[in-house]
Amino acid sequence: MKFIVSASVIVLNEKNEILLMRGRRGWEMPQGCVEEGETIREAAIREVKEETGIEVELISFCGLYQNITRGVCNNIFTGKPVAGTLTTSIESDEVGYFSLEEARKMITWGNFIERIDMALNNQTHPFLVEFRES
Fold first, then answer.
1. 44, 77 in Cβ contact below 8 A?
2. What is the pLDDT of residue 1?
3. pLDDT single digits (tens) 37-65
């Protein structure tokens, strides 16, 4: 099995709204795989820009989710927007900022809501969540 390292960023704007994109799995936070020769932080910043048009500054490393079944280690950061304009891409059909309450209703994939909640709770940092899909 190939092992995958990915990065997610929970981006909150000045109104405490979360940046989401809608792709093949529905609504989710911007995220993607780390490419060869790239740091995890660089990948996190690049993925947000590619998927949403927004340039971010990373605020903190929150923790790691390891999907043992799929061989994926997802590094989770929080960030804030510093430039750019909301725009879709080949990876995103829609992008926008939403209240956390709205986001909880929109995100339906796996444990993504849990990941956001863990990232936004500084008391849990750093976290390591290891899980197997059933």
1. yes
2. 66
3. 999 999 999 999 999 999 999 999 999 99
Which phi and psi (to 5°) does residue 20 adopt?
-130, 155
Token duo for residue 74: 């997802």
Residue 88 has pLDDT above 80, yes or no: yes
Whether the pLDDT of residue 2 is over 90: the answer is no
Name the helix (H) or strand (E) containing 123. none
User: What is the pLDDT, as a whole number, of residue 134?
Assistant: 75
**Residue 124 belongs to domain spanning:** 4-131
Contact 63, 129 (CB under 8 A): yes
Q: What is the DSSP string of 34-68?
A: PPTT--HHHHHHHHHHHHHSEEEEEEEEEEEEEET
Q: Which residues 6+ apart lie within 8 Å of 1 measured at CB?
A: 71
Strands ordered across the beta sheet of 31-33:
31-33, 4-11, 72-84, 54-67, 127-131
Report the number of distinct structural domains present in the chain. 1
Specify the CATH number for the domain of residue 125: 3.90.79.10
What the block records as the tokens of 9 is 């960023």
